[in-house]
Amino acid sequence: MFNRIRRLRQVAAIASISSLVAGCGVLSSDSSDEEGPIVVGTTAAPSTLDPAASWDSSWELFRNIYQTLLSYPSGSTAPEPDAAENCQFTDNTNMKYHCELREGLEFSDGHTLDAKAVKYSIDRIRKINVNGGPAGLLGSLERVQVLNDREIVFHLNKADATFPFVLATPAMSIVDPEDYPADKLREDGTIVGSGPYTLESYEEGKQAELVKNDHYDGYAERKNDAVTIRYFQDSPTMVSALRDQELDVAFRGLAADDIVDIQADDKDDLQLIEGSGTEINYLVFNPKDPMAGKTAVRKAVAQVIDRPAIAHKVYKDTVEPLYSMVPKGLTGHTAGFFDDYGDPSVNKARKLLTEAGITAPVPLTLWYTSDRYGSATKAEFEELKSQLEGSGLFEVTLKSRPWKTYVTGYQNGEYPVFGRGWFPDFPDADNFIAPFVGKQNALGTPYVTPTITDRLLPNSRAQSDRANVVKDFEDAQRILVDDARLLPLWQGRQYVAASAEVSGAERALDPSTIMMMGELYRKTSW
């Protein structure tokens, strides 16, 4: 349940964001053009405007401007039709997925959105095949077949019960074939979509202005006429803007200090909405690096790191320690890293290194992004450096880059060890394992593990009942623990700070924690 919702408590019962069953306010949601757009602040600026290039939180913007066949209406935890009128598997092997589009769909420029446009959009993702891009989500897709203007069939090369979830990700946004080249990315800084809003203007890294798309035909009931999204470099600046009434809502990247300050504030001008979440934060080790590529080094790092200290000292207990790549709350979660390593131990770490013939302090360079996951990231990596060097077993150098160049760096294999955060594409354990393994993955760092990619994941995807896949995910996580290529650190909660005059924030986050801007509105009566 939410910890603190000032003034809304007087008029509504709020349930957890994670269940997405939120109480509805009894207030009017009528809006006035004179009030201007809802202004939302975030520290997660898009890295691209083209869906074919993005497997990151650029999806936040995509969800509100582009349209997908399936999506998540407020309150839903499973994909439901959006651009599609209906979708379903048409065989009992989960290998043929049929969708029928809504009749008369159009892009924001008035061009027709038909089955050919859907096929074009999916095919160009695979043809362009951006390193670390969303083509990795389509590993089970064999081909796309257009039956007529409104019907399309996805033929899979293996059973995949998660395929509807993939189609619901903003990576599968439908683009206009007349505006997006088939073999390269669109890079003119504009968007043509068919989602709830159109992009009226965009200033990279600073601001996006959204207005209602009059051509939109989908599930979303927009409760405002326009939204302005402002991108910030750090949480204190963003929260200061919220307090100064320059913002209506702030989310994604709220620092622990700011969260604690808002919680402690007795004034009624702000509300803080808190719910459980499945965001995770972890380290990635480059197997080609002379030191990070050694299993003993990775396991020694895992043995030294003190997750509770990071959660308490850096994040003021607004996050919790995580000992698995699959977070708590999802079917298949384990605590393998705690089972193997237990509490931090320098002696055990030293033994691991000594047995591998490593006696001198291990030099490691840890990279983090300076502007993506909030201003606490720097403090987190400083704490990691302190812990590792405090053991006497490591000599650590810290380096950082802004997100856009940071992504290029890890995709090119430049970093020995680097930090990543992950907001789920969809709420299933599959999405906390599959994106990080295989030759083509979201990290741009090949992780060849045939047991997972060729046996365990296919086995799990053949099961429509996700309660039957626990053993497969437990086995997959055991491999991840043994390899220690990915090192989970913490699991986050969801926090949204908003003006007391704004409603809808408690309903705005979908199961992948993407904010659906249409849910936000100003209260006009009490």
Query: From the 3D coordinates, which CATH architecture of the domain at 276-493 would you assign?
Result: Roll
- Look at the structure and name the CATH superfamily of the domain at 276-493: Dipeptide-binding Protein, Domain 3
Mean pLDDT: 89
Query: What separation lies between the terminal Cα atoms?
Result: 24 Å
Q: List how many beta strands DSSP finds.
A: 19
InterPro entries: Peptide/Ni-bd, SBP_5, SBP_5_dom
Subcellular location: Cell envelope
Signal peptide: 1-22
Main location: other
Secondary structure layout:
Layout: E1 38-42, H1 59-65, E2 70-71, E3 80-81, E4 84-89, E5 96-101, H2 115-128, E6 141-146, E7 151-156, H3 163-167, E8 197-203, E9 207-212, E10 226-231, H4 235-243, E11 249-251, H5 256-264, E12 270-285, H6 295-304, H7 307-314, E13 319-321, H8 336-341, H9 346-355, E14 362-369, H10 376-390, E15 394-401, H11 403-411, E16 417-422, H12 450-461, H13 470-483, E17 486-499, E18 502-503, E19 521-522
Parallel strand pairs: 1-10, 1-11, 14-15, 14-16
Antiparallel strand pairs: 2-3, 4-5, 5-7, 6-7, 8-9, 9-10, 11-17, 12-16, 12-17, 13-17, 18-19
